[in-house]
Amino acid sequence: MSTDIATDVFEEHRPVLMGVAYRMLGRVADAEDVVQEAWLRWSGTDRSAVREPRGYLVRVTTHLAVDRLRRIKASGETYVGPWLPEPYATRYADTVPDAEERAVLADSVSLALLVVLESLSPLERAVFVLREAFGYPHSEIAAMLDRGEAAVRQLAGRARRHVEERRPRYEVDPEQRRDLTERFLAAAADGDLEGLMSMLAPDARLVGDSGGKARAPLRVVESADKVGRFLAGAARKAQPDLTYRFLELNGGPAVLILSGGEPDAVFQVEVADGRVQTVYVIRNPDKLRSLTA
Questions:
Q1: d(Cα 138, Cα 152) in Å, to the nearest integer?
Q2: Distance (Å, whole) CA 260 – CA 58
Q3: Mean pLDDT, each 10-residue run in order, the chain (293 residues)
Q4: Which residues contact 130 (CB under 8 A, 6 or more apart)?
Q5: Cβ-based neighbour number of residue 161 at 10 Å
Q6: Cα→Cα distances 179→185, 187, 189, 199, 274, Å
Q7: Which of 69, 71, 115, 127 could form a disulfide with 155 if both were Cys (CB 3.0 to 4.6 A apart)?
Q8: φ, ψ for residue 248 (rounded to 5)?
């Protein structure tokens, strides 16, 4: 296989590899590093012996992601305030015509799910991602992870139970979610407390991620009243030069808030029963860099 062909093959599978790595790590830069390392492995291997390039590349990427996740967990670093995944630009609405497949992909990369996946062991997370997001059978996952199929089935069952117990249930109707996002953002920008309260579920939550590097709540804000009042108060203190851009992040509609043309925050809501259940606000500047392009 020539170098040009090898490059073409790798680029063909890059979106899948990035999807695996990001779901494993929840960090765009780390996922990109893993995919780049997978490329180095691919470019340096005897490719004539590789019968299924996609399977080989997914296996290499998964191993690299597991190793990196283990190092992250072993570092014991503490995070200031609530942690959310780094927002990841997706375009499922444009690129995946099948509505059911689009819903599965969106759910598998949602902020809510990735927060839950943080509590899994690296191997549990790998099995869950490969099985639930990409549909690999247990036998192939076992080969990828150099584990017995029975052990993989056990890991899969344990991970699925853990996720089902902790993952909140949200609607995934993109049109309803986008409409509510737009109306909710307008009310928040205007400091319209009454309008916000009309859209918030009684037990609504606001999760703010700043990493201690920007202004955001250091604890989860609980209840519609507190969430509404927090957002209305934030609007009164907002900079006058804010602009807003709608985009698709983590499989759903989101708003990128810019100050002076620079990313200031990402705002996304989760919806159920026609009400906003969770508001996510990401202000850690380190997590907004990938959205500058």
A1: 6
A2: 40
A3: 78 94 95 96 84 94 97 87 94 72 81 95 97 95 96 97 89 81 92 96 97 93 97 84 90 91 93 94 94 71
A4: 20, 58, 62, 136, 140, 141, 144
A5: 10
A6: 10, 12, 15, 11, 10
A7: 127
A8: -100, 120
The amino acid that residue 125 corresponds to is R
Give the Cβ contact number of residue 246 at 10 Å: 13
Structure tokens that stand for 59 in this block: 């296996």
Three-state secondary structure of 130-175 = HHHHCCCCHHHHHHHHCCCHHHHHHHHHHHHHHHHHHCCCCCCCHH
CA distance 276 to 162: 25
- CB contact at 8 A, 265 and 284: no
Exposed / middle / buried, residue 266 (Cβ in 10 Å: 0-12, 13-18, 19+): buried
Task: Determine how many CB atoms are found less than 10 A away from the CB of residue 236.
Answer: 7
